[in-house]
Design a protein that fits this description.
Distance between the termini: 58 Å
Strand order of the largest sheet: 2-4-5-7-6
Structural class: alpha+beta
Strand content: 15-25%
CATH topology of the largest domain: Heat Shock Protein 90
Number of strands: 7
Number of helices: 8
CATH superfamily of the largest domain: Histidine kinase-like ATPase, C-terminal domain
CATH class of the largest domain: Alpha Beta
Shape: flat
Number of domains: 2
Radius of gyration: 24 Å
């Protein structure tokens, strides 16, 4: 009798633990859904208003010529693309923040990844007369290559948008450093320092130091919060430092330790 009772109690405890896990998981999912709806509703107001306004202009034939109509259509397409990118980034951010994404860790050459990002950006860099300094040498890391590219691309895009000419230099410097048995990837750009009160706030979703310039450049205010979520999931350090003639962002990656 006592053995049966003890077995029943154990089963009840086990079932209760499973039930608590299910409730907690459902609660997280509900919270994630509510947060996503709230963020999307907030951030899509401006592009929806612009699309609506320019679409009404086309319907009411307020444009005088083909060139004007083309401009209206281009604005609608541009804002539609921004909405698409925003929603995808938000979904990715939600998955990362709520631990819904699995990481596929492999060994790969970080320098090769960086070269490819620079190659894709070469035309823009040339047009804006931006000098790139990169100590290009084979440098192998152990990480999820997709997310490593996301982190570096967000840093590089951020540097490209905020770069300024200082003492005749308009420069992005990409470098490596070994810190506590990790590879630290550093992305520096010449330009204005970030105000001390904003150094921690820039990692928050939708935070924009210069709202008007950010929108002009197509920024969503999600890039650095994605970096934070990725790096938090990988238990590696990331951050930003003001330098005398610019700003330097960094993130750490695992490497093979010498035996």
């Amino acid at each position: 009798m006592s053995e049966t009772l003890e077995k029943t109690i154990k089963q009840l405890r086990s079932s209760n633990i499973e039930l608590e896990k299910d409730i907690e998981e459902k609660s997280k999912t509900d919270e994630m859904r509510k947060q996503f709806i709230s963020d999307v509703s907030h951030e899509l107001k401006t592009p929806i208003a612009l699309i609506q306004g320019y679409a009404e202009g086309l319907v009411e034939n307020v444009t005088e010529n083909d060139e004007s109509r083309k401009f209206y259509a281009e604005v609608i397409l541009d804002e539609s693309n921004k909405m698409d990118i925003l929603v995808k980034k938000l979904l990715e951010l939600m998955r990362l923040e709520y631990g819904k994404n699995a990481f596929n860790t492999t060994k790969f050459d970080m320098s090769e990844l960086i070269r490819e990002v620079l190659r894709k950006s070469s035309k823009k860099l040339e047009e804006e007369n931006i000098t790139i300094k990169f100590d290009d040498k084979p440098t192998f890391v152990i990480a999820d290559e997709f997310y490593a590219e996301q982190v570096f691309t967000n840093y590089f895009t951020n540097a490209s948008k905020n770069i300024m000419e200082i003492d005749g230099k308009k420069e992005i410097n990409i470098s490596y450093e070994i810190v506590e048995d990790k590879l630290r990837v550093k992305v520096f750009n010449t330009g204005e320092n970030i105000a001390s009160e904003n150094l921690n706030r820039i990692w928050n979703r939708f935070f924009k130091i210069d709202t008007s310039r950010n929108r002009e450049n197509g920024g969503s205010g999600i890039g650095l919060s994605l970096v934070k979520a990725i790096m938090t999931n990988t238990n590696n350090k990331y951050g930003v430092e003001n330098k005398p003639d610019g700003v330097e962002f960094y993130f750490d990656m695992n490497i093979e330790k010498n035996k």
